[in-house]
Amino acid sequence: MPDFKIERENVSFWLRVKPRAARERLTVDSSGQLCLELQAPPTEGQANEACVYFFARALRLPQACVVILSGRKARRKLLRVTGRSAAETITQIKTLAAAASNRRPR
C-alpha cells in the first residue's frame, strides 16, 4: 500500500495520474503506488482540477480540502487532504483503491 504522511489531521501522499483514461478510478499499481485514472486531458490544468474534484467527491469533502502540493505539471503529484481525521481519510482512500482494484476485468 502507498505511504501516507500524517501531520496533525492532514494527510499527504504521492500518486500517479493517468489522464485521458476510459474511466475514472483509483487503483494501486504493482509497485504499491496509488494511480488515479482520469478522463480529463492533461491540458490547461484540466487533469489537476479533475484530480482535486475526484478526491473531494469520493471523500465527501469541499474541494478546498484537497490541495496539490507538488507536481502540477507532472503525472506524479503530491496531494494533501484536510477536513477530517487522518485515520478516517487514509481508511477511505485505501477502501476506494481496493474497490476499484477488485473490479478489474480478468
Can you walk me through this structure?
The chain has 106 residues and is α+β, with helices and mostly antiparallel strands. It has helices spanning 46-59, 86-102; strands at 5-7, 10-18, 25-28, 34-37, 66-70, 76-81. The protein has one domain (5-101): 2-Layer Sandwich (Conserved Hypothetical Protein Mth637, Chain: A). It is 29% helix and 29% strand. Strands 1, 2, 3, 4, 5 and 6 form a six-stranded mixed sheet that branches. It is globular, with a radius of gyration of 13 Å. The model has no long low-confidence stretch (mean pLDDT 92).
Mean pLDDT metric: 92
Largest sheet: 6 strands, mixed
Q: Specify the structural class.
A: alpha+beta
Based on CA atoms alone, the radius of gyration comes out at 13 Å
Distance between the termini: 21 Å
The CATH architecture term is: 2-Layer Sandwich
* SS elements, strand count: 6
CATH class: Alpha Beta
Helix/strand order: EEEEHEEH
Ranges with pLDDT <50 over ≥5 residues? none
The helix tally amounts to 2
CATH homologous superfamily, by name?
A: YggU-like
| Helix content percent band | 25-40%
- CATH topology, by name, is Conserved Hypothetical Protein Mth637, Chain: A
* Assembly state: single chain
What percent strand?
A: 25-35%
Please render the helix and strand layout as text:
Layout: E1 5-7, E2 10-18, E3 25-28, E4 34-37, H1 46-59, E5 66-70, E6 76-81, H2 86-102
